[in-house]
């Protein structure tokens, strides 16, 4: 290996480790989002499935809290560390497909330069393990291509199965693989081989706990998530959000390089059909579906996470695998040079805004709604009210606030969401004695009149607020409820 060839892998390792360290620091002092707190409650009652998603995110959080405790750092630790195997898989995939260590190094670096990975591993969601699974599906398929050995299909099946344990979007991996085999003439022979089907059996076996959980719970999770595909009305305005949102999630430099790379891999034959087909199938299958989905429902930016390993490899190919003419080369060089600096600045600004609100002049913004800034102090205030009123349980009406209070209140407190009980079906319910005496309800402004029908006594005891940099970003009313006249929890 040449001196340059030896320096590049070391540079990738140092860069990725430095970024992981930066993310760990950010994770330590940034309060949990409501989804993270919700998934943390899952980790306390591990099961084969949950109402919203398969169980992998709960396993990731459980492993982290075993090391770092029930802290923001512990919740996020393993998710952030997943960038390490993810980066390795993308590096090796690009090296196999293009035989160029520069493209391999750039693929790993550019993947980590995206906010999809930078912020998407700090904020623990099912997308982090899903992107790891997508990276290894690509890698194992590249090994199939490189070696021609059928045994690698077992590894492909294992990676697909892990993806299915992360998020149902992984079902698209099967379609990607099928399209690749059909579109690339030299790979069609695998359709007559038993090995891909053995891989499918492995994927099914790994996914089977989710199927069993759904069978035991009236297919609740499948109905919820697959019901999103049902078209009720066409609202094409959501299509216009797709590109701007991904421009931000990819960061401008990586987005430009990725588009250039996809264009080059679609139009030029300097790369073999198998390599080009693998990257294109891995990217376009999911993108085309969600473009169609946006015709009737908003597509959240993180839903496209599984395409980012292939997108990063395409971006690296644009930067180092193709010589562009004139202006195109200048754009590619400029984008490559600024990709990492821009990424770090955007990440730091995002964390700064979430914690302080300084960039919006301390006014409310979407980060204030999603990130639990102010909740540690507010939880102490609510706990003081509970102790003063001798309440035995705290009730809430939405899962996000419920999860935040479960995390930030002293452990062991009775905290329950009154409705939507299917979200908590794996967790033990509060004892009846805790619900029949005095309880607190923490609700948004304007509690429903039905409260007075369900309890003999209803008294508003406090108005409280959570604050960011001294500015209220959420207000709540606290009611003391006594002597329930019916079921406290709405099942």
Provide an overview of this structure.
This protein has 22 helices and five strands. With 491 residues, it is an alpha/beta fold. The chain has a five-stranded mixed beta sheet. A hairpin with a 2-residue loop joins strand 4 and strand 5 (471-484). The longest helix has 30 residues, at 327-356. The chain is globular. It starts with a helix and ends in a 7-residue tail after the last strand. The relative contact order is 0.11.
What string, H for helix and E for strand, traces the elements in order?
HHHHHHHHHHHHHHHHHHHEHEHEHEE
Characterize the largest beta sheet: strand count, sense, and whether it forms a barrel: 5 strands, mixed
Structural class: alpha/beta
Helix content: 55-70%
List the helices and strands and how they pair.
Elements: H1 3-29, H2 34-43, H3 56-68, H4 72-81, H5 83-98, H6 101-113, H7 115-122, H8 127-147, H9 152-166, H10 171-183, H11 195-216, H12 220-226, H13 239-250, H14 252-267, H15 273-293, H16 308-320, H17 327-356, H18 366-370, H19 375-389, E1 393-396, H20 399-408, E2 415-417, H21 432-436, E3 438-443, H22 451-454, E4 455-468, E5 471-484
Parallel strand pairs: 1-2, 1-3
Antiparallel strand pairs: 3-5, 4-5
Helix pairs in contact: 1-4, 1-6, 1-7, 2-3, 2-20, 3-4, 5-6, 5-8, 5-16, 6-16, 8-9, 8-15, 9-11, 10-15, 13-14, 14-16, 14-17, 15-16
